[in-house]
Amino acid sequence: MKPRFEPRRLRPSAQSFIAYQRIEPVFPFAWHYHPEWELTWIEAGSGSRIVGDNIEAYEPGDLVLLAGGLPHTWSSEKPARRARAHRAVVVQFPPDFFVSALIDRPEFLAIGDLLARAGRGLAFPTKTALHEATGLTDLTKARGLDAWCRLASLLDRLARVPDARALASARYTPSAGHGAQRRFERALAFIDAHASDDELYLPQVAQAVHLTPAAFSRFFQRMAGVSFVDHVNALRIGRAARLLAESDRAIAEIAFACGFGNLANFNRRFREQKAMAPRAFRAHYV
Fold first, then answer.
1. Distance CA 144, CA 232 (A)
2. Which residue among 113, 136, 254, 284 is least packed, with the fewest CB closer than 10 Å?
3. Positions of the chain with pLDDT under 50
4. Which pTM value belongs to this model?
């Protein structure tokens, strides 16, 4: 799959990378990729994170490293009040940030391994994000050689986190022509906007991107690496998991709000995705 290309952001003339705070009322769905490696830390806000063929709920403390070229988006579900805007720190650095002569040195071998593993995206534990929070914020203000050294040290520490986990599956390969890219992006945006509708069916999305249902089913499977139904269920379960953790709404109410027509189907799909019942999942956050 090859989503919208995002041009390189302007960076300070004295730096080879950028680090900035992203503060917006809402993080819109924007399925895209860029050549730079990207480290994103969510400081405030919640929603759905899609990296390649991986879909999960995100919340404050989400810390992810992505290799260049890996499609992704963070999408919040609703605008935040002004005082509770969605906030993130984003660090982007070019593929040649560590030249080959440097990355082969013993001191940089751990970073080289980290960057290789980031090809599928890496999510770090919340405790790691909390430990690195001040350093990530300070990085947005650092300049010159001090900034370069801070980022190198940060990546070295992340390289030694034992329980970082891969996001996109091993089978995922981002490739498609430009026409297919635009059509797939429209399909994903339509699904994201209507995933909470209990009557979201494949023919609706197929019609939105001007394909027959049968052609769209094959197209979506080829582009996403998963079926349309599996993608929608994963997106809905991700949203439901966030509501279970953050609210005291009844489980049935959450199931219906996330697009499931009946509670039995919701419980079955939730067990498939999370390997536990919704009630047991919520118990972890009480």
1. 45
2. 284
3. 1-2
4. 0.65
